[in-house]
Amino acid sequence: MSVVASLALLASAVHPTDSPDFSWLEGHWVREANGRISEEVWGDMRGGLMLATNRSLRDGRASGFEFIRIQSFDQTHYCAQPGGREAVCFELAEQGEQSATFTNAEHDFPQRISYAREGNTLTATISDIEGHDPISWSWTLSE
Fold first, then answer.
1. How far is CA 75 from CA 7, 18, 49, 91, in A?
2. Which of 10, 53, 67, 69 keeps 20 to 30 A from 27, CA to CA?
3. Are 72 and 48 a contacting pair, CB within 8 Å?
4. Is the pLDDT of residue 4 over 60?
5. Banded model confidence at residue 17, pLDDT cuts 50, 70, 90
6. Band of pLDDT at residue 19, cut at 50, 70 and 90
7. Is the confidence at residue 11, as pLDDT, over 70?
8. CA 27 to CA 32: how far, in whole Å?
9. pLDDT value of position 131
10. 3-state DSSP call for residue 98?
């Protein structure tokens, strides 16, 4: 079965809850420095599902990618598939007007993923469950 057919089946089988507002994530976010480019592209939330991709380039060549989704069915989860591997999901722990934090205490690292938007800057931070040992990335909204 194709991925599109699988997603269609999933969407028809599960009824979305009133999805939290993640519209502040939508767009094409880019960071460029020292011959490296990182971009994260977020679509809109439809049917309880918001899809994104992340791509990293080094000297013009792909060096990494990730498939990401936020799904709001019975609960809201952020699921990441770095390098296309099996998804690891994190439950929505808190949400502000333009921020969200997702947690999964059972995962080795990260256990906490936070996104925050300030103007045209989006920052993602990963850490352990308590917020220790944070690693952050920031992107600028591409026009």
1. 17, 10, 12, 8
2. 10
3. yes
4. no
5. low
6. confident
7. no
8. 16
9. 95
10. coil
Q: Which of 75, 30, 25 is nearest to 51 (CA)?
A: 25
What's the number of CA atoms in the CB half-sphere (13 Å) around residue 33? 5
Structural domains in the chain, CATH included, are 16-141 (2.40.128.20)
Q: Is the pLDDT of residue 88 over 50?
A: yes
Cβ contact 83:24 at 8 Å: no
Unique residue bearing structure tokens 């699921």: 79
Q: Which residue has the tokens 């094409």?
A: 28
Contact 115, 131 (CB under 8 A): no
Q: How far apart are CA 57 and CA 96, in angstroms?
A: 31
Tens-place pLDDT, residues 35-56 = 999 999 999 999 999 999 999 9
In the block, which residue shows the tokens 């920031």? 138
Angular region, 7: left φ>0, alpha ψ -120 to 50, beta rest: alpha
